[in-house]
Amino acid sequence: MENVWIVVAAYNEEKNIPRVVSGLLKAGYNDIVVVDDGSKDNTCEAAVKAGATALQHVVNRGQGAALKTGIDYALEQGADIIVTFDADGQHRIEDLPAIIKPVVMDVSDITFGSRFIKKTKVPLMRRVLLKGSVLVLLLFYGIKMTDAHNGFRAMSRRAAEQINITADRMAHASEFVEETRRLGLRYKEIPITVKYTDETLRRGHGSFRQALNILYTMIVKRFFLR
Amino acid sequence: MELSALQIIAILFALFAWSRALLRLKDRKISGLEFGFWTVVWAGVIATMLLPKTAEFIALSLGVERPVDLAVFVSILLLFYLVFRLYVKLEQQGQEMTKIARSIAIRHPRKK
User: CB distance from B105 to chain A under 8 Å?
Assistant: First the structure.
């Protein structure tokens, strides 16, 4: 049996994290690491109480930084497969087996969840931004994806060891794609369903300002920091 | 040589700014190279103020009619460059901070 670790980056998710962690435990995923990214509430305590291992950033460093911390920790603990999963409950635990399977079968080094393969109700504004991001990924990295900035992914130990995430904030999602291309990793998109609630819409990746921020980071990194 | 009020203010400001750079060098807050850079910048400002004819000649030979246009153009370029350097520095510091936060977090896992 492969040693699967679930990495959850959480910021001010005291309310949602117990439900996410207990759901994962119930489904048989016992190795869960929640990275509390300098939350102002009791996310860390809530995660520990729910049964996860919790790591705490002393200051907020962003989702990319928190995921990398969790991935590094999971690798240290001997993870064979690492899954990144959102803390706000918008990912469905039922989709986990499908996203892990190609990595377990060794047909993919990394899998990305996609909300556009199956018909999912995605709010219009978010759909436009995500499709725009898909186009940006194609232009920047030459990789044709159906979805962008989906935080649900699974990767093999070898892939996790090689992938170098340097973007501390939201641009890390594009960096996973960039690294997949750079390292020549075998990848696959897996249909998943994203549960949108008012809260996830308010806090998620989908705002126009965030999209501009990500694009800006990508441009600066690509053209000026190399 | 008669100097206008603006020229005097600009020269005094350049001397003041250069003295700040010199103090930072003494405190070892900036490197010799950085101090050299600021010396060239402020010396350039003073030279332009004291020798307007030379500045005019340089501007004309670069295809710019008025020295003040050249000064604005060069200043904007310089500002862009400095903002970019600041950005890179901030980015590097952010990454250092992340490394520290990560290292503390991984060393102190919390379990039930």
Answer: yes
Residues A173-188 have pLDDT tens digits of: 888 998 999 999 999 9
Contact yes or no for A85/A151 (Cβ under 8 A)? yes
Subunit contact B101:A168, Cβ cutoff 8 A:
no
Longest dimension (CA), chain A: 47
Sequential DSSP letters for chain A = ---EEEEEEESS-TTTHHHHHHHHHHTT---EEEEE-S-SSSHHHHHHHHT-EEEE-SS---HHHHHHHHHHHHHHTT-SEEEEEETTS-B-GGGHHHHHHHHHTTS-SEEEEESSSS-----HHHHHHHHHHHHHHHHHH----S--S---EEEEHHHHHH------STTHHHHHHHHHHHHT--EEEEE--B---HHHHHHSTT-HHHHHHHHHHHHHHHHT--
pLDDT for residue B87 is more than 80: yes
**Do B98 and A65 make contact, defined as CB atoms within 8 angstroms?**
yes
Tell me which residue in B87, B102, B104 faces A72 most closely, judged by beta carbons: B102
pLDDT for the residue A101: 97
Domain assignments of chain B as residue spans, ordered by start: 1-50, 67-112
**DSSP at B110:** B
ipTM value, please give it: 0.84
- Going along chain A from its start, the domains and CATH numbers come out as 4-223 (3.90.550.10)
Does the pLDDT of residue A162 top 90, yes or no? yes
Looking up tokens 């030279």 gives B47
Residue B94 one-letter amino acid: G
Counting residues of chain A whose pLDDT is more than 70, the rounded percentage is 92
Q: What is the pLDDT of residues B32-75, one digit of tens each?
A: 999 999 999 999 889 988 888 888 888 899 888 888 888 889 88
